[in-house]
Amino acid sequence: MYDGHDRYQNPLCKRYASDEMQQIFSDDLKFSTWRKLWIALAEGQRELGLGVTEEQIDEMKSHAGDINYNSAANFEQELRHDVMAHILAYGEQCPKAKPIIHLGATSCYVGDNTDIILQRRAIQKIKKLLINAISKLYDFAARHKNLPCLAYTHFQAAQPSTVGKRAALWIQDFLLDLEQLEFALKNLKLLGCRGTTGTAASFLSLFDGDHEKVKMLEEKIANKMGFKETFAVSGQTYSRKADYYILSVLSGIAQSCYKLSNDIRLMSHMKEADEPFEPGQVGSSAMAYKRNPMRSERIASIARHLIVNALNPALTASGQWLERTLDDSANRRIAIPEAFLAADAILSLVINIMGGLTVYPCVIKKHIDEELPFMATENILMYCVKKGGDRQTLHERIRLHSVEAANQIKQEGKENDLISRIIQDPAFGLSQDEISCLMNPEEFIGRAKEQTEEFLNTVGVIIDSNKDLLSDDTKIRV
Question: In this structure, how many other beta carbons lie within 10 angstroms of the beta carbon of residue 43?
Answer without folding.
Answer: 19
